[in-house]
Amino acid sequence: MAVKRQERQSRDCKIPLQWILLLPFAMQLIGTIALLTTLGNYYWTFLICGVMLLLSMAFGVFANRWIRQEIEHIEISLKASHKKYKTLFELLPIGISITDPEGNLIAGNLASEKILKVPNQELTSRTYDSPEWQIVRFDGSPMPSNEYASVRALAENREIDNVRMGLFDDHGNVRWLSVSAAPIHLEGYGVAIAYVDISVLKHTEEALRQSEARLQAFLDNAPTPIAIKDLEGTYLSVNQEFTYWMQTSYEAVIGKKDYDIFSHDSVKRVRDMELQAIFEGIAVSFEETVHLPNGQRTFIITKFPLMDVHDKPYAVAGIYLDISDRKQGEMELAYSRDLQAAIYNGSADAIFLVDPLSLLVFDCNQQAIIMFEADSKQELIGIEGRTLQKREFTDAEIDAITDDVETFGVWSREVEYITKKGRYFWGNLAVTRITVASQEINLVRVTDISDRKYAETVLKESEALFQRITTISPEVIYIVVRHGDGSINFEYVNAAIEELLGMSIEDFMSMPNIHRFIFHPDDFESFERELNHSMQTMDIFRHEWRIITSQKQVKWVKSQARPERRENGDIAWYGFAIDVSERKQTEIALASAESNLRNINQELERLINLDGLTQIANRRCFNDRILLEWQRLHRDHQPLSLLMFDVDYFKLYNDRYGHQMGDECLIKIAQTVDDLMRRPADLVARYGGEEFIIILPNTKAEGAIVVAELVHQAIQKLQIPHQDSTVSDIVTISMGIACDLPKLERSPYVLISQADHALYEAKQQGRNRSVLFVE
């Protein structure tokens, strides 16, 4: 649409200056003729006329010179004024362009080049509706040309101020502008256009909206109660957690005061803290027990003022941290510590607490002082435990002990010690790793076994050593043999098997192939596989599996054994096994919790990307997918097509049939179009309101046109009545089609804009049709 203004019909009366100067002479001539006709004395008549003529000529010469000087002065002033105007025009920081009466750009200053990113030479070759302009409204939707400030100023012959718009450059980047236009009432001119770059303002507004949304999400999802009151103590806002603790609704709290909700015992102290926070302008934290509908709870309450732009308090906020469980836990912990201290100091064994990194003792019980004949605890604290041994462990032995403790959780050995007074004794050294207050420490227990060692000296050294290891070990120690026929039997097992399986050693040893009866059936195959691998490679057997006790309990067992091939071909394993049920249960519970969390996150991700009404992809999902497909198809050098359509006269449909029928109409259309898509990469999304968009990867324009026709046919088959439509008595759609070969230097939103432009053309052409965008 071209915008034209009626040309001004004005003509200046241009009379030459010389004609004006001849006017006195003409008047003299007329006077002379009049005198000749009235006076009889011609001599005096000619004399008077001559004098008048000379005076007129002198006046004419003087007037001509004076007028020329004035004209030259005016021309000099006009040139200076024009120069000032041109300098001001070029140096203004605001972009300014000027159009002719038809709306074509004829001039622009340097600032307009910088803001519009278009050289003035190219700028003056464009019209307001040139296809090079890619302009969107402030909300991101395409802006038709009749909304441009310059077009409106020409059409309405008035000033148009602060039209906000976005301008895309050749790289797909958008700059946000505030555009004003005003008519120029001079011949040959149209309007003056002023551009102000407000991109920073736009980004600031978006950041503010995101900040407000994050704040609201924080309040709605905060795990602790939060409340905001005015300075008089009236509730202005509370979050969901606050109403949950109060067992009431949001509306029942807003507008109330604490005296209306809580007992008067605690209200006064809370109000005093609020007033302190308000008047001092600081956060105040205190502990308070509150009577709630579900019982008495203890909170750490933090009150802090909310300040306005003048740094004056206008409200007070409160955060309530429930510490009731922690208080109960502290009481239980204190009881547990007292009990452990009694056991710790009352033990018959020497107990040392050792730092696992430095291996230095940092605490010990009273029995350690007695057993090692020290004068005080300070004499033992800060030393390495091996300095108390008759033969100190080497660094290699210390490393091996540390590895065993980290791997199996416990390590023990019989060690000969020497006390501070030089007396020797044998002790059973047991090391286990424990966690106290989230800190790992080594608990070292030394049991005095001097009497048993003295009794065992009468036995053979080898038997004594073996018995000593097996009887004190908390692990199951065994010797198991696999014969050539595949059968397995245990040659030896220590007493720990009784606690592990709940059966006597005699019963255990009397059953051949007992592993077939006590092993969990689901773990039997993996056990056989690991055992065969160890037998074939003669590597150490390491495995974890489940067993079933005589009481039908399921336990997890961890075992390690070294194989040995005997002369008759049998394979014997010498090893031990420990009960790791608690650790496995913890691992299983943790794995289950992680699996549940993954499932929840997957479901949440699905819901986030799903339109709540139509149950197809939403705009967020579309935005993510278009970026991925744009990058992927750029790598593959394949085309990407978009179909954008909306329902014709949908507002009239809602007005006639109601919004519920309108929602059902959108659901039918969305599900029908979604069912048409056959390829996994195709995506149908609700773009907004009654507007939908389809992504067709690896699809040229011809293929996109075919899909568009299928969509039209499918919606027509629905036969949804629409009596208020001017194009059909059933629901129809208008569609825009755009296709491009993705390039990284271009934004996919350019393709979206093209599809939207094509949709606009389809509506302009009469609706109920598809239009392919052509540059």
Automatic annotation (TrEMBL):
<dbReference type="InterPro" id="IPR029787">
    <property type="entry name" value="Nucleotide_cyclase"/>
</dbReference>
<dbReference type="InterPro" id="IPR013655">
    <property type="entry name" value="PAS_fold_3"/>
</dbReference>
<keyword id="KW-0175">Coiled coil</keyword>
<dbReference type="InterPro" id="IPR052155">
    <property type="entry name" value="Biofilm_reg_signaling"/>
</dbReference>
<feature type="domain" description="PAC">
    <location>
        <begin position="284"/>
        <end position="335"/>
    </location>
</feature>
<dbReference type="InterPro" id="IPR000160">
    <property type="entry name" value="GGDEF_dom"/>
</dbReference>
<protein>
    <submittedName>
        <fullName>Diguanylate cyclase</fullName>
    </submittedName>
</protein>
<feature type="transmembrane region" description="Helical">
    <location>
        <begin position="20"/>
        <end position="36"/>
    </location>
</feature>
<feature type="domain" description="GGDEF">
    <location>
        <begin position="638"/>
        <end position="775"/>
    </location>
</feature>
<dbReference type="InterPro" id="IPR000014">
    <property type="entry name" value="PAS"/>
</dbReference>
<dbReference type="InterPro" id="IPR035965">
    <property type="entry name" value="PAS-like_dom_sf"/>
</dbReference>
<dbReference type="Pfam" id="PF08448">
    <property type="entry name" value="PAS_4"/>
</dbReference>
<dbReference type="Pfam" id="PF00990">
    <property type="entry name" value="GGDEF"/>
</dbReference>
<keyword id="KW-1133">Transmembrane helix</keyword>
<feature type="transmembrane region" description="Helical">
    <location>
        <begin position="42"/>
        <end position="63"/>
    </location>
</feature>
<dbReference type="InterPro" id="IPR043128">
    <property type="entry name" value="Rev_trsase/Diguanyl_cyclase"/>
</dbReference>
<keyword id="KW-0472">Membrane</keyword>
<dbReference type="InterPro" id="IPR013656">
    <property type="entry name" value="PAS_4"/>
</dbReference>
<dbReference type="InterPro" id="IPR001610">
    <property type="entry name" value="PAC"/>
</dbReference>
<feature type="coiled-coil region">
    <location>
        <begin position="583"/>
        <end position="610"/>
    </location>
</feature>
<keyword id="KW-0812">Transmembrane</keyword>
<feature type="domain" description="PAC">
    <location>
        <begin position="541"/>
        <end position="592"/>
    </location>
</feature>
<dbReference type="InterPro" id="IPR000700">
    <property type="entry name" value="PAS-assoc_C"/>
</dbReference>
<feature type="domain" description="PAS">
    <location>
        <begin position="211"/>
        <end position="282"/>
    </location>
</feature>
<dbReference type="Pfam" id="PF08447">
    <property type="entry name" value="PAS_3"/>
</dbReference>
<dbReference type="Pfam" id="PF13188">
    <property type="entry name" value="PAS_8"/>
</dbReference>
<feature type="domain" description="PAS">
    <location>
        <begin position="462"/>
        <end position="538"/>
    </location>
</feature>
<dbReference type="Pfam" id="PF13426">
    <property type="entry name" value="PAS_9"/>
</dbReference>
